[in-house]
Design brief:
Layout: E1 2-8, H1 13-24, E2 30-37, H2 43-50, E3 55-57, H3 66-80, E4 84-87, H4 96-101, E5 106-110, H5 125-134, E6 138-145, E7 155-162, H6 169-193, E8 197-200, E9 203-206
Helix pairs in contact: 1-6, 5-6
């Protein structure tokens, strides 16, 4: 059974997609053991409570400096003993010590087709604003492993979404969530939980059958 911790900052719609996926069997061999938010008012914590999942707030505001917060975040994660950490709209820079501790065991969902519209400054609506400003015809979402860079880790899955005439950043964001994010993230978690994800030489591939050695 894959033990996952989900880290969120806001409403938690991607968290809900994982919760629903576990409940309906789309995600197998998986248990959500904790939800962590940097925002005590995040609705994601309410979603966790409603589904009987332990939730906790670890906020930078509660610590004297960033290093103390990073240590607290890592210790909170360690206590949950996860096999996988899922960043589902987590607007916090993950400390390098945490990345080193959980190499290829942290995944993130980004609302564009990486390497487009990603990296520093591209988050939330800013991604979709950038897409519309550039006038591209196809955007989408990407699930990737987290490394020390920003949106630079091995890509696990991507799914395209067409940009429509008259789109605003808000309408495009909603469609990318519905047509890509909420589909990709459960799919990626299930593939990892069932040993079908392999990382080699900085690249990731999805295997048709379960690997005997389990999660990469």
């Amino acid at each position: 059974m894959l033990r996952i911790v989900v880290c969120v900052s806001g409403g938690g719609t991607n968290l809900q997609a994982i919760i629903d996926g576990v409940k309906n069997g789309q995600i197998s061999n998986t248990e959500i053991v904790q939800v962590i938010s940097n925002n005590g008012n995040a609705y994601a914590l309410k979603r966790a409570e409603e589904n009987g999942i332990p939730g906790i707030c670890v906020s930078p505001k509660d610590y004297e400096d960033r290093e103390a917060f990073n240590d607290a975040l890592l210790e909170t994660v360690k206590r949950a003993a996860p096999d996988l950490i899922v960043l589902a709209g987590f607007l916090v820079v993950v400390p390098e010590k945490m990345i080193a501790e959980y190499r290829n065991k942290i995944i993130n969902i980004h609302p564009s087709l990486i390497p487009s519209f990603c990296g520093k400054g591209y988050y939330g609506l800013k991604v979709h604003e950038g897409v519309l400003e550039r006038g591209v015809k196809v955007t989408g979402a990407t699930v990737h492993f987290v490394d020390e860079g920003t949106d630079t880790g091995p890509i696990i899955l991507q799914r395209p979404v067409e940009v429509e005439d008259g789109d605003t950043a808000e309408t495009l964001q909603k469609r990318v969530m519905e047509q890509a994010e909420w589909i990709l993230l459960p799919e990626a978690v299930d593939a990892i939980a069932n040993g079908r994800v392999e990382v080699k030489d900085g690249r990731c591939r999805i295997l048709k059958n379960r690997k005997d050695r389990g999660v990469s």
